[in-house]
Write a structure and sequence with these properties.
Chain lengths: 388, 159
């Protein structure tokens, strides 16, 4: 039975060929070829200034992850030390990105089981995180914060205080989600015991991120291979022992809480100083295997430089690719109807963008609209339109 | 989490397969030959305590293809097993029997570099589209897009 590449439950093109015996799944074959854009090849032809925006576009959700993994790898090859303030800002953006990604996931998972109220709630709360990111970087999706040698924008005291004001509300909402996941029968019935993976299976099939941590495998590159300021900030690796979709939900909600406290710590303890150093245009010959904990799991960039201003090779292993083997295995002997929720439980990210930023409207004079103006324009537009 | 592996320990355990070098505090690389890669990975799993494969990285250096099998375990040290295979006969044994996650990475490498993995159960296209020409491998250094070749998708009439 073919599912996809265009399936109402999955927002991105992927093709599953499911072999089923009645309602039970026997085997799953995958085809991911609908989104290949040749980014690895294109990266070999751009210098370091132009390659970072390109790598951000590998993924629309974890855009900061890709540029950070590359930037920290190249900085290590160039042997430059980036200023502490830049490290803190990178961590703040990384954790805000994790929060928006996990809130998005929670909404999608709720939507897959037909629980659209939760979907609306999480996506509303996610807007707060998105607003913070937009205020800090100017963008909602591709933040463009990283550059080789530091970050592009500094944080103003006003940005720090507005971000801190939003956190208590978010934390309160996260606690409500914890209660809801443990009490709502709709969630428990569809999540418990579905898509189970034992600890041994996770290790055998090489699952990463929340999928692995939900089965008690405590791999987390933030702790195992410390980067940015994760050694200075107090935080814990969240694990669970359930191993099913319920466990993955618990891990992600726990990580939301941890991320909120990391963001708070970093905002409150933001050191003074410059946010970037001048990086050389060329990198010496070298090789680095850069690991980064993206919201979906461990991201690995293998970077090789050849003494010029371009990379010789950048090999990207995204967390979703690592998780497909485990999905194919845990679907065996499950119901056909559970495919969307099991697949959604790894938070597949094939390549995603959620919206396009327009600076000018056709036929009008080009100009930059500030965020507040845009919001006001939207509100007046809706008021003029009236209720449908 | 246990203590990081030391270079001496890894070099001692893996001495039959080749020399080990420490690239960074938690990265150890062992260079070996394509014939012994299977045994080397088995040995790393058995006696170095590695329990998972992070990825298989590939690079084309102009004369050979380089493959890096990045393994990790509770010691949180990345043990990379590196091999070089000739460009005119790009063939190596598949690791999918020992390590299941290798299967999907090998399919990807097969698509993009044209490396054959002997013994792989289903070396079908995964990353490139199904109507991509069979003898073109886009990540090889000498690959150039040929304007006359049909690379799949909707055909555009050129005038």
């Amino acid at each position: 039975m073919p599912i996809g590449p265009h399936h109402p439950a999955l927002k991105e093109p992927v093709n599953f060929r499911v072999i089923a015996d009645g309602e039970k799944i026997v085997r799953l074959e995958l085809d991911l070829s609908y989104n290949h854009r040749g980014i690895e090849k294109a990266a070999e032809q751009r210098d370091f200034i132009r390659v970072l925006p390109l790598l951000e576009r590998v993924c629309g959700i974890c855009s900061h992850s890709h540029s950070s993994a590359f930037a920290k790898g190249i900085e290590e090859i160039m042997q430059i030390e980036i200023p502490p303030r830049a490290q803190y800002i990178r961590t703040i953006i990384a954790e805000l990105e994790r929060m928006h990604s996990h809130l998005l996931w929670l909404g999608v998972a709720a939507h897959e089981i037909g629980f659209n109220t939760l979907f609306m709630w999480t996506w509303r709360d996610r807007e707060l995180v998105q607003d913070t990111l937009e205020e800090m970087s100017g963008n909602r999706v591709h933040y463009g914060m990283n550059e080789v040698g530091g970050v592009r924008c500094d944080l103003t005291p006003h940005q720090v205080s507005t971000a801190l004001e939003r956190l208590p509300f978010l934390e309160e909402r996260i606690y409500q989600y914890v209660d809801m996941v443990n009490a709502q029968q709709t969630l428990l019935l569809r999540f418990k015991g579905v898509g189970k993976l034992t600890r041994e299976e996770v290790l055998k099939y090489g699952a990463v991120g929340p999928t692995a941590r939900a089965s008690g495998v405590d791999y987390d590159a933030r702790r195992d291979d410390p980067y940015f300021v994760y050694t200075e900030v107090p935080w814990n690796v969240v694990t669970d022992t359930n191993g099913d979709v319920y466990g993955r939900t618990c891990v992600r909600i726990g990580e939301l809480r941890e991320s909120a406290s990391i963001v708070r710590y970093c905002l409150e303890n933001l050191p003074e100083g410059p946010v970037r150093v001048n990086a050389p245009k060329i990198a010496p010959e070298g090789e680095i295997f850069s690991r980064y904990e993206a919201p979906r799991g461990e991201l690995a960039h293998f970077i090789r430089t050849n003494g010029t201003n371009k990379v010789e090779r950048v090999d990207i292993r995204t967390p979703t690719l690592a998780n497909w083997t485990s999905v194919a295995m845990c679907l065996v002997d499950q119901n056909l109807a559970d495919i969307p929720v099991i697949v959604a439980a790894i938070d597949p990210c094939l390549s995603c963008t959620s919206r396009i930023t327009l600076i000018s409207t056709p036929g009008r004079k080009p100009g930059i609209v500030t965020f507040d103006e845009l919001r006001k324009r939207g509100q007046t537009y809706c008021q003029e339109q009236g209720p449908p | 989490m246990t203590a990081l592996l030391t270079l001496d320990y890894v070099a001692e355990k893996m001495k039959e397969f080749g020399t080990a070098e420490q690239v960074r505090s938690n990265r150890i690389r062992i260079r070996t030959t394509p014939e012994r890669v299977s045994n080397a990975i088995q040995k790393a799993l058995d006696s170095l305590g590695c329990d998972r494969l992070i990825t298989i990285s590939t690079a084309d250096n102009g004369t050979t293809f380089e493959l890096f099998y990045h393994l990790i375990g509770p010691h949180r040290t990345v043990v990379s097993i590196a091999i070089e295979i000739p460009r005119d006969q790009p063939e190596v044994i598949s690791m999918s029997g020992i390590l299941s996650p290798a299967g999907i990475y090998e399919r990807q490498i097969h698509d993009l570099f044209g490396i054959m993995f002997r013994g792989h159960p289903g070396l079908k296209k995964i990353i490139l589209n199904e109507d991509w020409p069979a003898d073109e491998f886009p990540l090889r250094k000498d690959w150039k897009k040929n304007p006359d070749t049909y690379y799949g998708g909707i055909k555009v009439e050129r005038t």
